[in-house]
Each structure stands twice: as C-alpha cells, then as structure tokens.
Write a structure and sequence with these properties.
A hairpin with a 5-residue loop joins strand 3 and strand 4. This protein has seven helices and twelve strands. Helix 1 (24-33) packs across helix 2. By secondary structure, it is α/β, with parallel strands linked by helices.
C-alpha cells in the first residue's frame, strides 16, 4: 500500500474556461511543486489533451489517470475516469457526435487549443465544448461503465452544474462508488458512496487547492473503488487548504 495525494479534476488550455497557461508541463510542474503525485485531466466533453499531459506526468514520474468532464442533457457535470488512453479515446469518440454542432466563439467563450509538450499549438477544437451532450445523466453513467470507466458525479454540492442543483434530487436506483464534493462531506441521498475532493483547476494557481489522500495498492480506478469501500486497509480522505484533512 502507498499513501498518495491526488488532484483528479484539472482542466487544460483546451477547455475554453481554462487559461492558456494550462499546458501539459505547467500542470505537472505545479502538481509536483505542491506535493501532488497523482493527477487527472478532465476537460469538458473531450479527451484530446490527455496523452500530452500523460507524457508530461511520465517524465516527472507522477501517476496519471485519463479523464473527461461530461455535461449531460440536464446540464449535470459528470467525471469519467479510465485507466488507459485507448479506453478514454474510444469513449470520447463515441460521445463526440452527441455534442451539438455549435461552433466555438473564442472572443466570447475562450480559445480551445491543443498544445504539445513544447507548448506549440497543434490543433483547435471547432465545436463549443462547454455544451450539453444529447445524453441524460443516467445514460451517461451507463455509457461510462460500458467503456470500462468509473463515473463520478462532479462537485455535487455546488450551486451550478452539480447533480443536486440541476435535478434537485438523486435519481432513484442510481448507485455510486465515488462522488466529488467541494467540502469533503456528502449530501444525503448518495448511499454508501465515498467523497473525493479535487481542485477543478482552470488556472495553475488553483491546482491542488483541494485534493484527496488515497491509501491504495496502485493508482487505478479499481483501487479507487476499493478505497471507497475501505477494503484491505485502503482509504481515501478529502483535503483542502493545501493538505488539511477532513
């Protein structure tokens, strides 16, 4: 078992709400500087930057989890985590046609650029990424699992784009292993789920403002689930203010 501090919700320069300074190496440098040894990229409705950040993480010898942040038909944000690049990209390719054909307006929403490890722009995303997929929340949960991923409702206690804020309730019969909160405390209705905290960083300065300390055997989604259930000494604990634990 190892104890590891994680920030599993970071946006890159590809998310229109993310600063252009959120390049792969800058993200990793900030994580390392703050003692974070496990990160995940979760851009809005796309996985186009995960490989570049994974490469930067490998250079720095920190752990990486492939992710996305979906926006469902109800405007609920849902994190989708995958252990491999292949699984993440296959999922991203499957849901891309469900994103409306509305072009991005950089002057209003911000740029949507892909960069390489040297911060050279290698592409742009024409569709507006901060939009809702033609996919309901429960459908999205099922689709993530279908592709071998772990669905995690994002910032459920936030007043915008959280499950409770958008729906007003937890869907009957919905089950969760892990749920992201901003406070480390789960609202009622999430059953036996465990809470994680992440920064939802859109600027370098925000990386690590909220983290989760895991005790796990490996940095995988299955180990996250086992930690959520407290199996075999595994655990997870939310942190905030650069490391204080709930």
């Amino acid at each position: 078992m190892k104890s590891i501090v994680a920030d599993l919700h970071i946006h890159t320069c590809l998310s229109p709400c993310g600063e252009l300074t959120m390049s792969p190496r800058r993200i990793v440098e900030e994580a390392v500087r703050r003692g974070i040894a496990w990160i995940a990229v979760a851009d809005h409705n796309t996985a186009s930057m995960v490989d570049a950040v994974a490469a930067a993480a490998a250079e720095a010898k920190i752990e990486f989890l492939f992710g996305m942040e979906l926006q469902t038909r109800e405007e609920v944000h849902l994190l989708a985590y995958f252990d491999t690049s292949d699984a993440c990209h296959r999922f991203a390719d499957a849901i891309y046609p469900l994103l409306p054909d509305r072009e991005n307006e950089p002057a209003y929403f911000g740029d949507q650029v892909c960069v390489d490890l040297d911060e050279t722009i290698v592409g742009t995303e024409p569709k507006l990424l901060v939009n809702s997929l033609d996919l309901g929340f429960e459908q999205a949960m099922d689709r993530v699992r279908e592709y071998g991923g772990l669905p995690v409702p994002a910032h459920v206690d936030r007043e915008t784009f959280g499950l409770l804020a958008q729906l007003g309730f937890v869907p009957e019969g919905a089950t969760f292993d892990v749920v992201e909160t901003t406070s480390g405390r789960l609202p009622e209705g999430f059953g036996g789920a465990a809470a994680i905290c992440s920064s939802d960083a859109h600027t370098p300065e925000d990386i690590g403002r909220r983290t989760t300390r895991f005790v796990v055997d490996a940095c995988t989604i299955q180990e996250m689930v086992l930690a959520a259930r407290g199996v075999g000494g595994r655990s997870m604990a939310c942190c905030w203010d650069r490391g204080r634990t709930t």
